[in-house]
Amino acid sequence: MLNLVLFGPPGAGKGTQSQKLIARYNLVHLSTGDLLRAQIAQGTELGLRAKKLMDEGLLVPDEVVIGMIGSALKDNQQASGFIFDGFPRTVPQAESLDRLLAEHETKVSCMVALEVAEEELVKRLLERGKTSGRPDDQDESKIRKRVTVYNTETAQVAGYYANQQKFHALNGIGAIEDIFGQICAILDEHQPATTEGSRQATDEVKA
C-alpha cells in the first residue's frame, strides 16, 4: 500500500498534484477538513463531538481526528493507498498515525513537502482570491499568517519523517508535469513493489 503525506503551504499546488496522483496510483485523498465536514453532515458520534467543540471555539482533539481517519481507512480497505493532506501537523499526530496504520498492517511510505517562497504564495493566493470567494485568500495579512503557521507546524513533523528517511522537499515552482514527475519518482523509490505499469507511467511523465 502506498501512503503519502503531502505537505505544502497554502497555494503550493497540493490540490493539483493530489488529483494527478489519485488518478495515477488509485489513491484515496484524506483531508482532515473534508473528513470533519463529512462526519458532521452525517451526524456521526465523532461528527457531533467535533461540532460541539467547534461551536465552543475549541480545537478538535487529536483522538477525534485520528478516529475519523480510522473510519476512513475502514471504509476504503480496497484502496491502493492514501494521500494524507494537511495531516499530521504535529509529532504526536504523526506518532498516532503510525500506530493507526500499523493496526491496518501498513505504514506511511513517504512525506513530500512542496516548497514555495512566501512572496510567490501571497501572489498566487491573492490571485486565487479573485475567484475562490474565500475571505482568507483575499487578505494579505491572513495569508502571511497561514504561511507562518504552516512553517512553524511542519518543521518538527519534517524532522520526524526525516529520521525515518521518508522526508523529501521539492521546489513547488515550475511546470505542473515536471513537479508531478518528481513526486512519482519519490513514490516509486519508497514503494519498490509498485506495479511495472506505474513505473512505466512515471518514466513517461519524465520523458
Please identify the structural class as seen in this structure.
Answer: alpha/beta
CATH second-level architecture: 3-Layer(aba) Sandwich
H and E order: EHEHHHEHEHHEHH
Estimated share of beta-strand residues: 5-15%
Indicate the percent of residues in helices.
Answer: 55-70%
The average pLDDT is 88
Number of strands: 5
The first-to-last residue Cα distance is: 26 Å
Poorly predicted regions are 194-202
The CATH homologous superfamily is named P-loop containing nucleotide triphosphate hydrolases
How many separate domains? 1
Gross geometry: globular
What is the CATH first-level class name? Alpha Beta
CATH topology assignment = Rossmann fold
Task: Please give the radius of gyration in angstroms.
Answer: 17 Å
Order of neighbouring strands in the sheet with most strands:
2-3-1-4-5
Question: How does this model look, in words?
Answer:
- The chain is α/β, with parallel strands linked by helices.
- It has a single domain (2-187), classed as Rossmann fold (3-Layer(aba) Sandwich).
- The chain has nine helices and five strands; from the N terminus they run βαβαααβαβααβαα.
- A five-stranded parallel sheet has the order 2-3-1-4-5, with helices on both faces.
- Helix 1 packs across helix 8 (176-190), helix 2 crosses helix 4 and helix 6 crosses helix 7 (140-162).
- It catalyses: AMP + ATP = 2 ADP.
- Keywords: ATP-binding, Cytoplasm, Kinase, Nucleotide biosynthesis, Nucleotide-binding, Transferase.
